[in-house]
Amino acid sequence: MKLRIRATLLVAAFLSLLVVAGAPACAAHRDTSQLSVQGHKDYTADQVVKVVNDVTTSAITASRAGKLKDNDERMILTINKQVLDVIASNPTNWKELALSALKNARQGLPPAQAASIGPYLDIVVNVLSGMRLP
Amino acid sequence: MNAETVQILVNGVLAILARHAASGNTTPLTNEEVHAQLMADLQDGQSAIAAEFAAKGWPLPE
């Protein structure tokens, strides 16, 4: 069991590096030189939204395949909804608010879910932390 | 979360990177384009979550 958790954490760390390294590469793919400061913030927010949406899709897929417990899926989707709502409602300072919401959610998890959902939350926290805003 | 679940999540993250790499559009982005894309992606994500909560019979969180 400990080995499985350790392996999951290792994969989570790898994913964090992948996403944090990949996001700037994505950002460099299109010419963003003509964007305003708010345009850059919107562009960065959209990178986060795309990752959140892909994780949502993955969680739903895993649940339908019987690989993810309903409670875990529900928690992931609830947290993803919080992040999306924060970004939608706060176009200028969404990063700090989303990080705060995620960290609060992480601390509030019961121990059993902290083991299963914690690595996922860490990925999203690392993605958000790695985003540079103008 | 077992190895298969982690693999599904990995595939999800890889999908976004592949999607960006495949777009091939070098036209400079405009503020309007970026904002419209953000709103569309937010709507897509919120709709997907709402649909899954409805399908499972869970009340949608505030």
Task: Summarize the model shown.
The complex is a heterodimer of chains A (134) and B (62). With 134 residues, chain A is mainly alpha-helical. Chain A has helices at residues 2-29, 37-64, 70-89, 94-107, 111-130.
Structure notes:
- Chain A is built from five helices and no strands.
- By secondary structure, chain A is an all-alpha fold.
- The radius of gyration of chain A is 15 Å and the shape is elongated.
- Mean pLDDT of chain A is 80; it is low at 9-18 and 20-28.
- Chain B is flat.
- Chain B has 62 residues and is an all-alpha fold.
- Chains A and B meet through helix 1, helix 2, helix 3 and helix 5 of A and helix 1 and helix 2 of B.
Please tag this protein with its features.
heterodimer, A: 134 residues, mainly alpha, B: 2 helices, 76% helix
Topology summary:
The complex is a heterodimer of chains A (134) and B (62).
Chain A: H1 2-29, H2 37-64, H3 70-89, H4 94-107, H5 111-130
Chain B: H1 3-23, H2 31-56
**N-to-C order of helices and strands of chain B:** HH
The global form of chain B is: flat
Distance N to C terminus of chain A: 43 Å
Number of helices of chain A: 5
Query: Which regions of chain A contain 5 or more consecutive residues with pLDDT less than 50?
Result: 9-18, 20-28
Strand fraction of chain A? under 5%
The biggest sheet of chain B amounts to: none
Helix content of chain B: over 70%
Largest interface: A-B, 59 and 43 residues
N-C termini distance of chain B: 26 Å
Overall form of chain A: elongated
Extended strand count of chain B:
0
In terms of quaternary structure, the protein is: heterodimer
Total count of helical runs of at least 4 residues of chain B: 2
| Helical proportion of chain A, percent range | over 70%
Structural class of chain A: mainly alpha
User: What's the mean pLDDT score of chain B?
Assistant: 84
Radius of gyration of chain B: 16 Å
Number of DSSP-assigned strands of chain A: 0
Tell me about the biggest sheet of chain A?
A: none
